[in-house]
Amino acid sequence: MAIAKAERLMNLALCLLGTGRPLTKRELRSSIEAYLEAGSEDSFNRMFERDKDDLRELGLVIETVENFEGEVGYHARRDRNRLPDVSLDAEEAAALQLAAKVWQQARLAGAASGALQKLRAAGMPDSEAGAGSYDALEPRIPAREAAFEPLMLACRDRRPVVFAYRKSNSAKAERRQVEPWILECWRGHWYLAGWDRDRRAERVFRLSRITGPVRSRVGEYTAEVPEQVRVRETTERWAGEGATTESALIRLRRGCGYPLRARATRVRELGDGWEELEIPYGHGLDAWLAEFGPDVVVLEPAELRADIVDRLRAVAKG
Asked: Could you list the mean pLDDT of each consecutive 10-residue stretch along the chain, which spans 318 residues?
């Protein structure tokens, strides 16, 4: 029924836009097959009035004109229903072209390319033109993960999803029920922010750790979607990279753990191939440090050390 109504609205819009003069109800009914099948005159009138109101809500400007014989006609003038010319500066055009590159490995790559071609034909500046000596540098935002497209659609349609997710310190994937909010690319990886129904808390998931298919579920969201979701700040906080007032003291084997050294606020040589580092202490730091295995030893705080020991024991048990 939804498809039939959409087709009927499209036919009515084409009739109103394609005529050079106002058309009466009688003329419209004889031109559109769905109206001929309406049955009684009352049924047609109710259907036509609903369709006319729906088209106006969609933005179509429909004029009502009375002819010399007193009949009411309807017309949608093209000059009043034409979108304004596209006007983009170089920065806006570059942003659109970069957004289109997100789909370079996705199923909608053709649609994104077609949209860019139409915008260029309408006068959109080409950011690639005049690049000069910089044409060898091209920003790319890959979207190779199979979970990207279904999660993007779920975020758009506000649909809960279910998927298997493997944490960085776990060998097995766990089932997650998530209300997806937003996708964001950070440091070459895509992350999903949303509400974890089982844990009843906000969580961020790295798409490369999602295993198997992403399955949509029917139903409303149970948690309110924040007006602004800062995926990068959340990811940094859970990775222990955000600015915090607390710090952790660790021993790091020389020649290992360069990402830790890059974030260290203090480094001291200990001898015997070890160094002492002071790094910001945030949520999720235990999971990050556990990835370095025997090359890292946590000195303090004690709770961080205990968390890492528990994680490593869990991994050892499988």
From this structure: 74 88 89 85 90 87 82 86 72 72 57 62 56 45 76 90 83 90 79 91 88 90 84 60 67 86 86 89 73 88 84 75
Which pLDDT score, from 0 to 100, does residue 165 have?
A: 93
Q: What are 155's two structure tokens? A: 């975020």
Find out whether 159 and 177 touch, Cβ atoms under 8 Å.
no
Close Cβ partners of 241 (under 8 Å, ≥ 6 residues apart): 263, 280, 282
Polymer length of the chain: 318
**Which positions ≥6 away from 172 have C-beta within 8 Å?**
166, 318
Which helix (H) or strand (E) segment holds residue 177: the answer is: strand 174-186
CA distance 186 to 23: 55
| Rounded-to-integer distance, Cα 61 and Cα 79, Å | 10
**Does the global pTM surpass 0.90?**
no
Please choose, from the candidates 15, 10, 14, 42, the residue with its C-alpha nearest in 3D space to the C-alpha of residue 28.
15
3-state secondary structure of 127: coil
Strands 247-253 and 296-300: antiparallel
**Alpha-carbon gap, residue 59 to 81, rounded angstroms:** 8
Predicted pLDDT of residue 156: 87
| Res 245: pLDDT | 55
Instruction: Round to whole Å and give the CA distance between 270 and 253.
Output: 10
Write down the pLDDT at residue 172: 82
> Are 74 and 28 within 8 A, CB to CB?
yes
Structure tokens, 210: 């999602």
- The SS3 of residue 120 is helix
3-state secondary structure of 153: helix
